[in-house]
Amino acid sequence: MLSLIDTQFAHPLKVGTLAKAAGMSERTLTRHFTQHLGESVGEYIARVRIGHACRMLADTAMPISVIAGRSGFPNLANFNRQFKVTKQMTPADYRRQFSGKKNDASPSLTERSPSLDSKRTASKRRRPAHK
């Protein structure tokens, strides 16, 4: 059931459809979710969708409205509201805070490695002066 939600989160998901796919009643599915995960089916789906949106906000420059749609939120206002409730910040604030963090540690391709600079200066120091 969780793998179905994890792969289909961007599409509309209804408890009745999920229960039918699992071969159980809506009530049984809801009870199992609450019992085993500590959250409702809707809360789990929202958490998966927000998690996907967070990755996209941090890793892409896509507009927030596109990210909302690709994360399963057809309504941007609803996405913004649910995101803020979950993360205590707006999607734009999240992007500003977390985008590019992974790449900050690695130098850009146009930067010269500091180790190369130190070797070159060290080799210049070792050369005997020509008289």
UniProtKB/TrEMBL annotation:
Give all residue intervals belonging to the HTH araC/xylS-type domain.
Answer: 1-97
According to the UniProt record, where is the region Disordered? 90-131
The record's listing under SMART domains reads: HTH_ARAC
Which Gene3D superfamilies is this protein grouped with?
Answer: Homeodomain-like (1.10.10.60)
Quote the biased-composition stretches of kind Basic and acidic residues, using this chain's numbering.
93-104
Renumbered to this chain, the Polar residues biased-composition regions fall at 105-116
Write the record's keywords in alphabetical order, separated by commas: DNA-binding, Transcription, Transcription regulation
Q: Name one Pfam family in it.
A: HTH_18
Check the record and name the InterPro entries matching this protein.
Homeodomain-like_sf, HTH_AraC
Q: Where is the composition biased (Basic residues)?
A: 121-131
The record's section on PANTHER family has: ARAC-FAMILY TRANSCRIPTIONAL REGULATOR (PTHR43280), TRANSCRIPTIONAL REGULATOR MTLR (PTHR43280:SF27)
Name of the protein: Helix-turn-helix transcriptional regulator
